[in-house]
């Protein structure tokens, strides 16, 4: 297999304490794992207590990762060394230096970029992104993440990671579709259980997934845009949640009584193909700033 120059892979000579496996080392400048993995774009990661490592799950694999500037140290399970997945998931080919230079032409986004320099957009697998953001309605990040990991524990396939423990993967679409409501309730999903099951069944019954994401039960414009950005890689849009709307009103002087599409179009017209990056930097910066007040 051939790799791009951005995917320079080497083996660590020393295994991390208690880990019974080796890690790959990928050049990845400008990366903040806490901001990227524990922010608002994914709920499928959690920190491990050992040496700054993080654990992530998808429907097919688990990922162990740590950032040691300027390298991402990682391993995938149960199939090891999935270089292609890592390159796509972390959007290794995105030129963050160029992106941040262009974004900083807007003075407000420039402030956001300066405060969130290591933020990267992720490109997550489609189905777990759909289910994760179905859980996001009227909830904070902590509660969404809690439900995602409970769903994995209740419905996900268990795999073993040497030297760590048994890990449950994100549940498959089939598992969500066939789950009992009592199982979903155990994951603290509330009224969203209905939407999880209906959407899972709609996906399985369709000949191919529809690009009209709002056709799925429980998916409105904001959740659809989350899926567009974080799973489908659409950088021309960004989700407009309560934080983004507040900053548009406060910092850009937009009216506060417009419908969702008004703010979405305004952002797309202003930032073009970098709208997703602009939106995520603004979201993480403004949310953090507001919570610190």
Quick structural overview:
The protein is α+β, with helices and mostly antiparallel strands. Helices cover 44% and strands 12% of the residues. A hairpin with a 3-residue loop joins strand 7 and strand 8.
Question: Could you explain the architecture of this structure?
Answer:
By secondary structure, the protein is an alpha+beta fold. The chain contains 13 helices and eight strands. The chain has one domain: Endonuclease III, domain 1 (Orthogonal Bundle). The strands form two sheets. It has a six-stranded antiparallel beta sheet with strand order 1-2-6-5-4-3, with no helix packed on it. It has a two-stranded antiparallel ribbon with strand order 7-8. A hairpin with a 2-residue loop joins strand 5 and strand 6.
Please give the oligomerization state of what you see: single chain
Radius of gyration: 19 Å
Side-by-side strand order of the widest sheet = 1-2-6-5-4-3
- CATH homologous superfamily caption: Hypothetical protein, domain 2
Separate helix tally = 13
- Which stretches are poorly predicted, pLDDT < 50 over at least 5 residues? 1-14
> What is the total tally of β strands?
8
Largest sheet: 6 strands, antiparallel
- The N- to C-terminal Cα distance equals 51 Å
* Secondary-structure element string: EEHEEEEHHHHHEEHHHHHHH
